[in-house]
Each structure stands twice: as C-alpha cells, then as structure tokens.
Inverse folding.
C-alpha cells in the first residue's frame, strides 16, 4: 500500500516554494555585540553559489535543487591560519587563502582546483595519505539526469609559494562513487588505526519510496543507499553489507555526525534523514558492524532532518544530539506553511514501520542511561524556519557550547499556495512528463521569496538557550546552507563562514575577544602515522561540578567540515584535571597549569595506558535506592490496550484527545486476607482485571464475569470503598473515553458490589449520572455512616470547552446514590475541565479538604460539609494542571503539595501578558461550537491550528481565504470576526510549569517552580516516598502523554523523575537509579508486598508495571 497520491504530492514537493520579501539587516543592536557579519567588500570573499534554473534542470527534475552546498575550513597551506574551501552547485568550487585580519584571496586556479562545473554538495577535509598536507573530498550528484560526475578527491601534492597544489585521485583511492552523494565523514570505525569513510547519500521520489518501510529493509540501492568504505592499506573497500548499516532507496541522508554516543570508546554515527525515513543512530558493536538503536534510545526525531551535530551541551560529559527541521518562527510564514502530517497519515506511517517524527528542530538530551529525552521546545531552539546547518560551538568561551543555525531557502515547497498550485492535475502531468515550460516556471517565480537571518542561541546552562539574534551586528537575511567555524583572525574566539544560495558568502566575526576574561586555548593534535590529525580524539576537562568533553570529528552540521585545532573556552574556569584521549583510547594526563597557555600541542606516543571510561560514566553516582522491576516476579501479565478512536475526526481543533485517560487503578484488600490487591481498568472493548495478592508476594488473576460483560465501558478512574456497609470493599469505577454522548449508559459510573463468593456484581443504576469522569473520592460527606461520592468531570463528550457538571452523590445506605449537587455543591455545576480531585488537610483543622485541578484554570479547594460546600482558589495561576500530591516537604506539620502540569517542553510558550487562549463559540453558525486555540508569536496572537485544520472544521474559512497568503496576512478579527470573538467564552492559561506549593501554616500557598529536569514532560501522577533513606519526604513523578494534536507532538521525554528533598523547601531532580520507565504512566499507587513498599504503575496502551526500591 502506498500513501494517498495527494499526500505523496505534498511530500514530494515539500522542498521549495515562495520568494521575494527581504527582511532588513540589523545594523545596530541593543545588546553587546556577539558577532558581526562581514560583507564581501570587507573580507575579499566573492564566492556565490549562484543557481540558474531552466527548463532542462530545475527543482522539478531534482527536488534538492535548492539545498545549497558546503564549506570547509582548514589550514590548507600550513601557514598557521585557517583557510576556506567553498563547494558550488552549478559553478566552480573555490579555495580562499587567509591573508590575516579577516582578509582572504582566491587561489582556485593556482591551486589547480578542477573547474568542471559539476553539481557539488558536501565537502570534507582529511589528510588522506597522512603526509601533513590537507586534502579535500567533494561529494557530487551523479548518474542522474545530465550529471555523470563521480565524487572527487583532491589530494594536495605540494605547497608552492604559499599555495597548495591539488591532484584529483578519487579512483586511485577507491572513492569515486557516483550517485546521490551528500557528505562523507572520515573516521576509524574498527579501531585499526587508519581512517575509514561513511558516505551519506540521499534519494529522490522518482523511485516510489513511499511504500511501507518493511519493503525496503535489507535491500541495497546503488545510488541512494549510505555506504561504509574500509581503509585497506590506503585503498578503500565497500564493506556496507558487513557493517549492517541501512543502504536502501529511502536513505534520504542530509546530515551526519560522528560521536562516541555511549562513551565506550568506539565511534558511533547519527545520520539524519529527510521525509518519512527514520533517522539512524548507529551504535558501534565493536566487531566491524553497527546496530541502529534509534528506536530503543530516542522517543521521537525531527521529520525532515537536515543538518545534525553532536556535543555535550550541559557539561556532564555525555554528548547531546541536535537535528534541524523547518518549523517557522515568523507568524506570517507559519500561517502560510503546511503543518505536520494529518493525524491519519501520521498514524499510518507509524503502522508501516516509520517512527514518531515532528517537523521541528530536535535537541536530544543524553540521560546517561542509554536513553535520550527530546527537549528542543524546552531549550527554545525548536523553530528556526527552513534550517540546514547546526553547529554546536562555544561562542563566548564560557565553556558551554552554544548553537548556530544557518537557514533559508528560495523556493518553499511547504507553502500552501505553492502546494495547491503544483498539486493541480495538469501541472502534475507536466512535471511527470518533464514538460514544464517557460510560462509555467514564470508562474512559480511569482511566489514570494523570503530571506531570513541565521540564528544564534547562547547557552544559559541547564539546556536552556537565549535567542541572540539582536546581538548580531548587520546580520543579513539570506538563504544560508553550509556553515563552518574557525578562528580566522587567531584572536582566541571562533568565527563563522556560511555558504549562501544566490548571495555572496559572508563571515561572522566573533566579538568575544573584547572581553579579556573570555579566554580560550587552542589545542593542536598530531596523531599516529595512519591518522595524523587524530580524528576521533577527545579532550576531557574535569572542572568543579562539571565534565567538559571535546571530540575531534571534522564533519558536522550540513555539507561542511572543519579540520582545525580544538578550541577550549576557559572563561571563569578552574581546571581540576584533564585527559587527552587518543583515537586508540590511550590517554595522557594534562596538568591544569598547562591551560594557562594560549596554545597547546600534543603528539601521540606509543605505550600509553588505556583510558577508563568509568571516570565519566560513573562520575555521577545516584545516591538513591536502586529501583527494580518486580513485574515478572509478581506473575502479573496485564496489558492495557487503548481502543482505536480517531477523536480528531470529530473535533478537528482540540489540542489533545480526551479519550485516552485510562487505565483506572485502585489498590486495596478486597478479600480481607490482609494483603493488598490490584484493580486495573480496561479501555473500550477490553475487560478490566483484578489481581489478588498471595502470601508469597505473587498475584493471581481473579476472573470476573461482570468485568467481561462491561468491557464496552472505558475505565478511567476507580476507588475501593465499602458502599453497602457489609464489611467488604466494593469497587466504584468512573467511565470515560469521550466516545459516547448524551445519556448513553456507557457514560455512567458503575458500582461493583463485592460478594462473599469473591465475585463482583454490578449494582444496577447505582449512580444516576452521565459524565466523562476524571476522579472519584469516597467519603461520608453527610456523616450518616455511609460512604458518599464526589465524581469530577473532565469534558462534555463531543463538545470540548463546553460547561460540564461534577457531582456530589449521597449514599442511600445500600450502595445506591442520589445526586445532591444542586443543593449541596452548586459551584460544581458547569465548571468543567476538572482533571483531578484529591483530599488534603490544608489548614490543620483535622478535616480533609479537596483540591481540584483544571485544564484551563487554577487550583481550587472545596470545603465539604453536611450542608453547603464552599469553594475557593488556592492559586489563580492558570495552567493545564493534571494532579496534585499532598506532601509536607519541610516537616513543619502542615501540608504542602506538588502540582503536575503540562510542563515547559511544549510549543505553547506563554506569559501573563501573552497567554494561551481558547475561544469557544459557534463560529460558522451551524449549531456546533468550535474551539479556537491561540498563542502569541513575535507579539502577534494567532491560531495554533493551521489553515487546513481550521477550514476542515469551519468550511467558510476556505471561502473567505482562498489563498494562504491572505490567511497569513489576516488577524484574528479578520479570520473569525470581531463579533464572534467578543461573544465567545474565553479561557486562558499561561503557567505551564510543574510546581511546588508551600503552605505558610495558615492555608495560604506560595508557588515555586520545580527544577528544570522536572519540566520536560507532562506529568500525570506522583507518589511520596523516601528515595535516599534520609527521612525527608521525596517524590516520584511520572507521566508523558502521546495523543496530542500532531502540531503539538508527543510529550514523551520522561522516564520517571525523582524529586529529592534537600530539607530547605526545595528539591533536586534525579532519574531513578537503575530503572527507566518508557511510556505513558497515568497513575501510581503504593502497595505492600512481603512487608515491603512497592508501586503499581497504571500505563496507557502498555503493560501494568510493578516496581520497588531496594532498602
């Protein structure tokens, strides 16, 4: 089965379209200048990657026509200054020598650089023959259309009068590959001492590559598949099949970086793929082969991955991975651009083997346990438009690596108007038949071209970055692709050079050297005889509270390469110890005093000891109890399976599904044997389960016919309570799923009476309400001796945002209940969007109050009484709150609480002045209310949903705005009318941080945002525990939520987070020691097993887990 033709068109053209608005340069800044862009007249660099599309060859012939070309830096003439080599797509490659003071002169002809006008892509610098002279390997397009080129290896034969001389020798070395080459990276993958090659190739859509992934796995494509060439005494041999890397027709490789990802001393590979193919994370198996562990280690990736880089961004010694994509940051461009895949297409791709991917930049945080958390949205660098190169480098010499991003494209193929034009059947036939004429090309040229400035992000520590665009002097708008860095003026900071389409290249001069404290040291390495530039070496610095690692791999970013000394920023740095690890994993110690110099140089020696990577891997010991998985030993085998229900087809504009909130979970002694048992709910179509604990700590399932008969209910919350006063714990189960509506019986909460036989029996019509339950509390509210109920409601089915009632229900004495909400708790009528309710004594009066959390609201407290309940606000910070957990954090005798929220790793960035809003109204007057969610981008309030999503729900929008350009220019009043917006019910939220609320002893609470590590996902549940044996109450938080609107993406970054109490009304976040929980945890419940405390994890669409902590 192939993807739907229109969506194939949308993807096949997803590389190019609009053109002609130029953003002004930034001539002055309000901040201290970080870089200054230097023009051609200032540097002497006249190179321009000029493209000339024509009827014979253009973006319809080659979809990567506008991807640009690479740039490389290195000292090509050995004069101590970094020079520049530019690759050109349609013109000649050029070599510029550094004359000093940021002045360059072109010597291409003198250097005998071939002037053959092939289609060049990536460029790599390597000393291929280890003679001390830098050589250049150039990837090219070949065996396609008019191009018959082969990759080119320019070997430097001599330096005469300061000018290097080159000879083409690719065939001689076995590197004259011809196909869709993107970039080559030289590395020693087998640790035999010489340099091998990973050749990244890309693909085109002409070969029918939208089939299920399984149809490609294990196949090899002669033009598109990636390759590994092993060095066999100076000649390179194809060992791709033996290496076990993917080499298929769907290898849409656009970026590659080498790094020791798992710190075992062997180089690993990250390759970023465009379109639907997964990115590859190849872990070196130390036997000449690699294993793609992307699915095991990463939760999702960027979708249209372009440039990639890897480096340690938080100074813990472990490398992070950054990949580029194309999410716009400008509201005008965003509103006229295609968004993510439609939900059905997204799910289909998953079903046929492709992984979770989203169209935004990704930052993969290395968790030091073999897993990564994607935190690009938290980091603040997720949206930089059509982004190519990313370089992780230290701008300001503070020892923290920053992020540079080169971006822009002349023809935006994700522009909606462009897509609609080229999707026309007549145009499609012309493209297919290669008959696009001059008039057709002229029409396409009418689409606007938008140049944008390159992006600079300064590391604020804790994986958070500041956008420093305003600190770049004269930052021009451009179409920038390849980028490289070097200290061109030898002043101790790293400058940048970028290769632009249809503009002259420019250099960014780093201004850091004006700060005398921002010192850096340059480290030059001379490696062993067969790897003279020590590619693969590492420099490790131990500083107070940090480990700084620097890896020497020249190829990174996009199509580019840097063979330069390591630059080590030392601003305000005290070096405790330092290790230079050579590519063969031998090492030498560098004394801290050596870092007082400006330059260091080291030569590899034989006989050095092997480096013990435990110095890094075990540097961060976890002082918490070891977590263990008890599931297998317990005998429990239950997997919650969410039923298939595409909620977005019914309500296009909701931010997330409300139908996947299960499973329900309850723990208690149901058979009066003194042992706690487990009830776990099922989704619609799947029965709930009851597990009875045995004296040996194992569990056996108790088959319950009542559960089987009720399997069409969706169980989302449950409590154990003796509702009929017979001394046995019964079950009260709340229904959800958001599928049924009105007064369908499947929306009714249920009472299962516990029989002495061990079987549960449904008490018919026990609870006379219909709702989408979110929580249940059982308590004798009216003090008549029978347990009553509070049942809260999340949403109104099929009407997200509508008022919905929660309920107080009094027990008639036999387990039947009557609704007394109107008379007892009228504040609960029409409230809606309550996500959780929990009991807590907030004022030390011995009576339990009830905390209510809201999506689109604050946190309220209910004061139950036998007569009238009261409600007041604990905090008016409006968020998307999920739960509260009472905990006396400071042991002062009053209860504080943790509140779980959406978290800060989200596209929804908000402040009190610029909140996230939802307008609820019947915008098209068809009797059905819609939800318009808005957010602010660059000071403008815009809809979160894109034009396609809005007009599917509100068809008249398409009539009002036929063209996306008009929609992009329109404000909210233009789109939805002032009258409709003014008459809408509006709710707002701006506080999304997971938060600690501290009680002042009088029932008043102050908010304190939890540590950043506890902000990277949506937390759904938590439990109090003592994680380290110090008697201070700690907290285990869990969550994640996958079923969001695709534009939102999955919240999947958490693997279980401990909040370790420091005794000072604060927490330190830490991962669990020895265990990672991958998936969506909806509920945690403590349970006693063999007189030890354990925890039951109710997981959505996953197996029930039982975990414990060794004492």
């Amino acid at each position: 089965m192939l993807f739907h033709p229109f969506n194939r068109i949308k993807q096949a053209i997803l590389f190019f379209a609009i053109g002609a608005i130029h953003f002004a340069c930034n001539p002055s800044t309000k901040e201290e200048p970080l870089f200054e862009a230097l023009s051609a007249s200032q540097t002497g660099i006249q190179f321009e990657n000029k493209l000339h599309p024509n009827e014979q060859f253009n973006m319809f012939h080659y979809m990567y026509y506008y991807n640009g070309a690479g740039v490389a830096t290195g000292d090509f003439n050995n004069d101590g200054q970094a020079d520049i080599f530019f690759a050109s797509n349609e013109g000649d490659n050029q070599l510029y020598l550094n004359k000093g003071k940021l002045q360059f002169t072109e010597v291409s002809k003198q250097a005998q650089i071939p002037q053959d006008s092939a289609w060049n892509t990536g460029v790599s610098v390597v000393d291929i023959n280890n003679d001390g002279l830098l050589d250049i390997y150039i990837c090219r397009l070949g065996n396609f259309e008019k191009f018959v080129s082969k990759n080119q290896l320019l070997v430097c034969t001599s330096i005469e009068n300061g000018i290097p001389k080159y000879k083409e020798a690719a065939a001689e070395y076995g590197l004259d590959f011809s196909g869709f080459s993107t970039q080559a990276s030289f590395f020693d993958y087998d640790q035999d001492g010489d340099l091998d090659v990973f050749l990244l190739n890309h693909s085109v859509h002409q070969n029918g590559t939208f089939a299920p992934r399984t149809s490609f796995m294990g196949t090899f494509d002669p033009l598109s598949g990636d390759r590994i060439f092993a060095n066999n005494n100076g000649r390179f041999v194809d060992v791709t099949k033996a290496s076990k890397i993917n080499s298929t027709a769907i290898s849409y490789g656009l970026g590659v970086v080498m790094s020791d990802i798992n710190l075992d001393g062997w180089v690993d590979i990250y390759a970023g793929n465009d379109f639907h193919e997964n990115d590859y994370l190849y872990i070196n198996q130390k036997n000449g082969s690699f294993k793609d562990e992307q699915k095991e280690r990463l939760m999702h990736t960027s979708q249209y991955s372009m440039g990639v880089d890897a480096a340690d961004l938080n100074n813990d010694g472990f490398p992070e991975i950054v990949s580029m994509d194309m999410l716009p940051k400008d509201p005008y461009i965003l509103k006229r651009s295609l968004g993510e895949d439609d939900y059905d297409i997204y799910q289909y791709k998953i079903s046929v083997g492709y992984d979770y991917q989203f169209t935004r930049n990704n930052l993969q945080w290395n968790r030091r346990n073999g897993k990564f958390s994607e935190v690009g949205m938290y980091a603040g660098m997720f949206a930089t438009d059509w982004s190519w190169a990313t370089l992780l480098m230290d701008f300001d010499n503070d020892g923290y690596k920053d992020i540079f991003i080169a971006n822009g494209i002349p023809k935006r193929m994700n522009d909606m108007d462009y897509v609609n034009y080229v999707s026309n059947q007549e145009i499609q036939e012309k493209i297919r038949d290669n008959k696009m004429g001059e008039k057709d090309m002229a029409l396409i040229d009418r689409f606007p071209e938008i140049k944008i400035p390159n992006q600079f992000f300064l590391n604020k520590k804790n994986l958070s970055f500041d956008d420093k665009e305003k600190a770049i002097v004269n930052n021009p708008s451009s179409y920038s692709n390849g980028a490289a860095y070097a200290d061109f003026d030898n002043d101790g900071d790293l400058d940048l050079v970028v290769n632009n389409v249809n503009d002259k290249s420019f250099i960014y001069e780093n201004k850091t050297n004006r700060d005398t404290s921002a010192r850096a040291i340059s480290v030059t390495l001379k490696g062993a005889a067969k790897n003279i530039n020590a590619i693969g070496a590492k420099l490790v610095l131990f500083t107070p509270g940090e480990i700084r690692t620097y890896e020497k791999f020249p190829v990174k970013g996009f199509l580019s390469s840097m063979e330069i000394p390591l630059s080590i920023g030392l601003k305000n740095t005290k070096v405790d110890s330092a290790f230079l690890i050579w590519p063969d994993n031998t090492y030498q110690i560098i004394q801290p005093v050596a870092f007082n110099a400006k330059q260091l140089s080291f030569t590899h020696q034989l006989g050095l000891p092997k480096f013990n990577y435990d110095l890094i891997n075990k540097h961060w010991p976890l002082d918490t109890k070891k977590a263990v998985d008890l599931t297998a030993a317990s005998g429990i085998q239950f997997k919650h399976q969410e039923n298939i229900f595409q909620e977005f087809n019914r309500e296009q504009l909701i931010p997330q599904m409300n139908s996947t909130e299960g499973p329900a979970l309850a723990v208690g002694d149901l058979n009066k044997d003194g042992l706690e048992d487990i009830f776990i709910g099922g989704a619609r179509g799947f029965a709930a389960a009851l597990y009875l604990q045995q004296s040996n700590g194992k569990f056996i399932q108790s088959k319950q016919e009542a559960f089987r008969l009720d399997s069409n209910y969706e169980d989302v919350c449950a409590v154990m309570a003796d509702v009929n006063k017979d001394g046995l714990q019964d079950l009260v189960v709340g229904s959800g799923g958001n599928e049924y509506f009105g007064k369908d019986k499947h929306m009714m909460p249920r009472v299962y009476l516990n029989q002495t036989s061990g079987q549960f029996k449904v008490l018919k019509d026990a609870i006379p309400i219909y709702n989408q339950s979110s929580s249940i509390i059982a308590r004798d509210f009216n003090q008549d001796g029978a347990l009553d109920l509070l049942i809260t409601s999340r949403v109104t089915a099929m009407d997200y945002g509508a008022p919905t009632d929660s309920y107080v229900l009094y027990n008639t004495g036999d387990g039947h209940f009557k609704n007394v909400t109107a008379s007892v708790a009228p504040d609960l009528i029409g409230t809606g969007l309550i996500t959780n309710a929990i009991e807590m004594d907030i004022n030390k009066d011995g009576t339990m109050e009830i905390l209510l959390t809201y999506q689109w609201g604050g946190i309220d407290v209910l004061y139950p009484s036998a007569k009238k309940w009261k409600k007041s606000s604990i905090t008016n910070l409006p968020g998307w709150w999920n739960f509260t957990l009472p905990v006396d954090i400071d042991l002062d005798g009053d209860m504080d609480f943790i509140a779980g929220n959406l978290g800060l790793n989200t596209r929804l960035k908000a402040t009190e002045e610029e909140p996230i809003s939802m307008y609820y109204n019947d915008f098209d007057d068809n009797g059905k209310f819609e939800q318009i969610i808005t957010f602010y981008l660059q000071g403008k309030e815009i809809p979160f949903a894109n034009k396609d999503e809005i007009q599917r729900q509100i068809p008249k929008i398409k009539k009002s705005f036929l063209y996306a350009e008009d929609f992009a220019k329109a404000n909210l009043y233009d789109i939805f009318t002032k009258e409709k917006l003014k008459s809408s019910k509006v709710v707002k939220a701006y506080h999304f941080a997971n938060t600690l609320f501290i009680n002042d002893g009088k029932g008043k609470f102050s908010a304190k945002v939890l540590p950043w590590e506890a902000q990277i996902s949506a937390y759904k549940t938590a439990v109090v525990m003592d994680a380290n044996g110090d008697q201070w109450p700690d907290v285990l938080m869990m969550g994640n939520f996958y079923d969001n609107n695709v534009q939102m993406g999955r919240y999947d970054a958490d693997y279980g987070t401990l909040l370790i109490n420091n005794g000072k009304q604060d927490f330190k976040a830490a991962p669990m020691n020895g265990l990672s929980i991958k998936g969506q945890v909806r509920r945690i419940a403590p349970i006693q097993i063999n007189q030890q405390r354990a925890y039951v994890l109710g997981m959505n669409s996953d197996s029930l887990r039982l975990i414990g902590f060794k004492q």
User: Anything to note?
Assistant: Residues 1-29 have pLDDT under 50 and may be disordered. The chain has 20 helices and 76 strands. Residues 343-351 form the longest helix (9 residues).
